[in-house]
Amino acid sequence: MKNLKILFLISATILLATGLISCRSSQTSSTADSRFKKLTWNDEFNKPSLDTTKWTRISINQADWGRHMTTEDKVFGWEDPGILILKGIRNPDTSRDKRPFLTGGIYTKDKFSWTYGRIEIRAKLEEAQGAWPAFWMLGANTVHGKYPRNGEIDIMEHLSFEDSIYQTVHSYYTLELKEKKNPPHYGKAAINRNAFNVFGLIWTPEFLAFTINGKETFRYPRMAGVDPSQWPFDQPFYLLLDQQLGGSWVGKVNADQLPVNIYVDWIRIYQ
Question: In what side-by-side order are the strands of the sheet with 105-107?
Fold first, then answer.
């Protein structure tokens, strides 16, 4: 009987400790989100056309990611119920446009920007060699100077057939001062390939916390005692979503594997 009592006390102590740890873990998780509960901006893509009060199609540009961008309808589509499609395709008419590939992208530049909050994007990524889909954010003004001083937040970048995505922060601090390890400026996170995932970011004055399907996978903190360019993330940012093809990072495109699409279900921002 004495041994049974001792065993009961030990079991009860373990259960109590486990409960406290679980409770503390739950509180820590919810605390990160507790300040951002109000839905302030969203797009559910329930209509088969782009809401031009919120979005602009991205035009061709000279950046590595923008060489194949086009505003033509052929790289945009909709799928019921309420799915936006951003496409990467072979160019069907190279007599008019010499580029071998065309890609679709949209951004909220000059239409919507925000400071601090939680953003979630539910989307599915198709795969192809040379495909480089991205959900990312850029500074909406030049409070800290021109790029890269105004910062860049890459919520999600995926390369070809990799089983993980990249979550990255860029700034003058990381790109020009080469401070990429103090603190580490990127992380990798596994996703459910060829399925819908929720890609997220919790943005506070103290840190950027990147999430996949509600779980934090990488955190970039604001640092004390370093060059001030480490934290340009105290100003409004706008959102970009785009299917990209080819480039110095992802490499050459296998045209036989095209088209390749991003399927976007919804985007929600809480503050």
Answer: 56-57, 105-107, 237-242, 134-139, 152-157, 164-170, 186-190
Strand partners, 101: 90
DSSP, collapsed to helix, strand or coil, labels residue 126 as coil
Q: Can you give the three-state secondary structure of 27-42, one letter per residue? A: HHHHHHHHCCCCEEEE
Compute and round to an integer the Cα radius of gyration of the chain: 22
Whether the model clears a pTM of 0.85, i.e. scores above it, the answer is: yes
pLDDT by residue for the chain (271 residues), tens only, comes to: 434 444 434 444 433 344 433 333 333 333 356 789 999 999 999 999 999 999 999 999 999 999 999 999 999 999 988 999 999 999 999 999 999 999 999 999 999 999 999 999 999 999 999 999 999 999 999 999 999 999 999 999 999 999 999 999 999 999 999 999 999 999 999 999 999 999 999 999 999 999 999 999 999 999 999 999 999 999 999 999 999 999 999 999 999 999 999 999 999 999 9
Q: d(Cα 134, Cα 153) in Å, to the nearest integer? A: 11
